[in-house]
# Entry
Amino acid sequence: MKLLVCISKTPDTTSKISFTPDGSKFNDAGIAFIMNPYDEWYALVRACELVEKNVGTVTLINVGGADNDQIIRKGLAIGATDAVRVDAEPKSALFIAKQIAEHAKSQNYDLIFCGKESIDYNGSEVGAMVAEFLDLPFVSYASKLEVNGGTSTVERDIEGGVETLEVSGPFVVSAAKGLAEQRIPNMMGIMKAKSKPFTVVAPVAFPDLAVPVSYTLPKEKTGVKLVSPDNMEELVRLLHEEAKVI
Amino acid sequence: MVLVFAEAIKGQFKKAAFEAVTYGAQTAQLLGSQCVALTLGDVQNAGQLGVYGANKVLNINGAAFENFDSQVFASAIAQATEKLGATVVVLSHTSTGKSLLGRLAARLNAGSVAGAKSLPDVSGGGFKVTKGVYSGKAIATYEISSPIKLISLAGNEIPLKATGNEVAVETLEVSAPASKVKVLSVKRQEGIVPLPEATTVVSAGRGMKGPENWGIVEDLAKVMGATTACSRPVADADWRPHHEHVGQTGVAIRPNLYIAIGISGAIQHLAGVNQSKVIVVINKDPEAPFFKAADYGVVGDLFEVVPKLTAAMEKFKAA
Ligand SMILES: Cc1cc2nc3c(=O)[nH]c(=O)nc-3n(C[C@H](O)[C@H](O)[C@H](O)COP(=O)(O)OP(=O)(O)OC[C@H]3O[C@@H](n4cnc5c(N)ncnc54)[C@H](O)[C@@H]3O)c2cc1C
Ligand SMILES: Nc1ncnc2c1ncn2[C@@H]1O[C@H](COP(=O)(O)O)[C@@H](O)[C@H]1O
# Structure
């Protein structure tokens, strides 16, 4: 089995988000970066489990600068076999997907994993784009995945329910909660990661067709209005007359 | 021309489809152009999309569209886009729309904005759209520079506008690729509004002490016609089903009203609910961080407060 896992770098979930004074760029001063939780906890771990059960390799791919090496090393410590970093600033989803597809097109991967979304841009876009570039099926929000020879069974989360699918041949899958359990890399994994193959490749030229040009912070709440626990009629009145939500 | 893919579940439109058409019609107006709605497969009352401003409704039918496969659906929408010469394509930011948007972008070589919150700003010949980023902690303005622009519209952002009339449905022919995906089963909870579509959500956390106490939460939700949700530790402990888990790692929601009961308001929880229009927090600890993100707060014991709120709601509904 030959598997590819797309990993991205995102600010830690507890980060306080701010921007440069002119609102044009994310302010990364004091921000701790992590591997996108969906990529790490679910996509990567499930890929590792599949290879452990059968045989094969798990390749990591990331599009980003040298400051991403730390999360790639973590991925190797968790259990990936080798890694590729496409050395480019990831400015738009389509650019990122093009780079991943360019790498994957000659590799004949059995499965390509990504996370259900990156927790910074929340686009849920890259996986579907990679699938289209490679003319493969795409199954999003997988919460369960079993592979039997050339066919896979996947459960995916849909609005208010679950859909069970059977896919034949290679496909791209996006990982949601439930697909696997988070793994903490151990000392041996961390040591082994140091000698695993890790290549850096140049990007192919591709335009950025949609990019963020400015950022704002949402309006702060003006302050909570406290209602006495003994006067729920007043809360109902406020929700009806003031907030107009009931 | 603005093309809107109006998605249907088992042949029926959801609110998301009407919102997308409303958005498409308003975008067409900004551009001085027309709005065409596209439906795929067997869809009932497709003509009603005219009511929300579609100048024309098209249907592509065939067995290929009976179940959802992003490869087959995207191929059909892309062919329609090219046949009609559409310059803007609007989808809903649902599990279906999200798997189509990226495919269409790659196929049509088009820039996309996933989860748009506003109508495009087309001043000066540009095309700018805002969306939530960093799990709702910020808003970004995106500029799309390609000839075709793709947008998936976030739910509950655009008020529905019934401005038009039913229109006749025309059919369109495209070639559908063979699907490599077979749907074995679809399980949906019947009779409740799924969380991503819910306009009122009643949610509870570890303050509930145990699953046996959820009756008071369900009673409140029932009176309000709300959908129930929970915090992550509650789902992790199997007190509640996983699909109820909201937050950074669960479902992200944006209802009009979110009532949080016995939830502390951790940043990862807020990430999934901070785009709710109005937030009510019930917590016995006045220092709970959730109060900072709330519009209305009740400091008190949930086991006393929630039944009182349910009673007050009942009285209000009966009046
Ligand atoms: C990477 C990461 C991702 C995460 N993703 C999510 C996520 O998606 N969703 C999520 O919810 N969490 C998530 N978490 C967990 C999050 O950090 C919190 O631990 C969690 O939200 C706390 O749940 P809680 O508020 O139900 O419980 P607690 O924090 O234990 O809060 C319980 C609250 O109930 C109140 N209370 C107790 N008894 C009563 C009473 N009788 N009456 C009234 N109030 C009472 C307490 O004062 C307290 O504020 C994530 C954490 C990490 C690290
Ligand atoms: N720069 C990147 N390098 C590699 N994979 C990425 C990158 N950005 C996003 N991805 C993958 O695409 C998924 C969806 O990201 P997004 O479309 O940004 O929500 C992520 O969970 C990753 O698996």
Chain A has six helices and 13 strands. Chain A touches chain B through 84 residues (CB under 8 Å). The two ends of chain A are 54 Å apart (CA to CA).
